[in-house]
Amino acid sequence: MSTCYAARWVLPIHTSPVAYGWVEIDEGRVRRVGAGAPPVKAEVLGDVAILPGLVNAHTHLELSGLAGRVPPAASMVDWIRALIAERGRAATAGETIDVEAVRQAARVMHETGTVLVGDITNSLASISAIADAGLDGVIFHELLGFDAADPDVIVRAAWSRVDAALEAGRGAADLRPSVVAHAPYSVSPGLFAEIAWAARDAPLAVHLGESVEELELLRTGHGAFRDLLTTLGVWTDEWTVPGCDPVEYLDRLGYLRSGVLAVHGVHLHDAGLERLRDAGGVLVTCPRSNEWVGAGMPPLARFYASGVPVAIGTDSLASVGSLNLFDELAELRRIGPDVSAASLLDSATRVGADALGFGADYGTIAPGRKAALIAVDIPPGTADVEEYLVSGVRPAAVHRLGA
Questions:
Q1: Within a 10 A sphere around the Cβ of 321, how many other Cβ atoms?
Q2: CA–CA separation, 305 vs 253, rounded Å?
Q3: At what angle do helices 76-92 and 212-220 cross, to 10 degrees?
Q4: In terms of Cα–Cα distance, which of 48, 71, 179 is closest to 124?
Q5: Using CA atoms, how far apart are residues 123 and 165, in angstroms rounded to an integer?
């Protein structure tokens, strides 16, 4: 038998909000959506908005144990130095990845409305936590190596690791593998090219245009990132200064392709955004983290005006106070008052699902889609439901429906 929910508002996302709408669900998928009297007996939810579960397109769940341990910094390089120092102290003390913190973070994501995640991981320690929390998504096995030798060997080994880890830990969750590069300042050109060549059909991701120091390194070969790489003992004079912006650099390496997730993009210029758009890429914005690490605030209105699809991520608990995507939406509303609430909600659902390769199942309320829906309590008399949803939603107001 089917289940039907009726509510003050239904937000299909790909169409306008439906006042006094209903959603019929059959065998875990949406069967019908409409307005007015439901076609079958319905559970009347009252003053709530039903919308698709949210998509957190960029997290680092394995860093959850560092919550509160790496303070905000004045610059990206300063924050990275502090992160490295904290991880070094933890290793010296015999601490490993805090698996329980990872599990708790994944559960909280699920409880606050996220259904789909793009998780960046070096250790692959987050897989079972994501699966046990009831989340689907992409496991981006991230590689670093500015002075990497034998990139083909490194990439083949990485694919073997992520395949084996998913086989052991995904359970019933739909978790898909990818092997990706960290950033232009931490990955050699050869490793970038090899990752792109071996990508299968998986989405690629990369931290890109996040800081002024990254742009300086690519343009001149000098600056704070070169100093950091030298201190870490990984700088190599064999690296050729590209003398270009980050997006062009990816293009030269074969990494700029349809579906690539360019994460952060705070300092991408208009030409770079247009090049990313024309290549079929997606920009993933994480404004709370950008402010925390000293990268600056993303030019949100420019992102949307460029026409590049914009998805949303929280980044990690090492650089934000929560992994609640409604908190990220509230920050986006604060810094982007000229961006429509409908566009922000689209970014948090449909665009993110498409970016992770799950658009056939997630991101909208439409016949055939998974019924991974949430209901959010709405104050009686709310006229602009979209604006309300991006202005700060309490965790207790979010409820899971359907699958």
A1: 12
A2: 27
A3: 100
A4: 179
A5: 10
Q: How far apart are CA 216 and CA 238, in angstroms?
A: 18
Token pair recorded at residue 53 = 């579960």
Residue 302 is which amino acid?
A: R
Write the CA distances from 297 to 68, 268, 281, 336, integer angstroms: 21, 12, 21, 10
Q: 119: number of CA atoms within 13 Å, CB side?
A: 35
d(CA 402, CA 361): 13
Cβ proximity of 82 and 73 under 8 Å: yes
φ/ψ of 290, rounded to 5, equals -55, -40
Cβ atoms within 10 Å of 3's Cβ, excluding its own: 18
C-alpha 163/C-alpha 157 separation (Å) is 10
The pair of structure tokens assigned to 269 is 């210029």
Could you tell me how many residues make up the chain?
A: 403
The per-residue pLDDT string of the chain (403 residues; one tens digit each, 9 = 90 and over) reads 799 999 999 999 999 999 999 999 999 999 999 999 999 999 999 999 999 999 999 999 999 999 999 999 999 999 999 999 999 988 888 888 999 999 999 999 999 999 999 999 999 999 999 999 999 999 999 999 999 999 999 999 999 999 999 999 999 999 999 999 999 999 999 999 999 999 999 999 999 999 999 999 999 999 999 999 999 999 999 999 999 999 999 999 999 999 999 999 999 999 999 999 999 999 999 999 999 999 999 999 999 999 999 999 999 999 999 999 999 999 999 999 999 999 999 999 999 999 999 999 999 999 999 999 999 999 999 999 999 999 999 999 999 996 5
Asked whether the beta carbons of 118 and 356 are under 8 A apart, the reply is yes
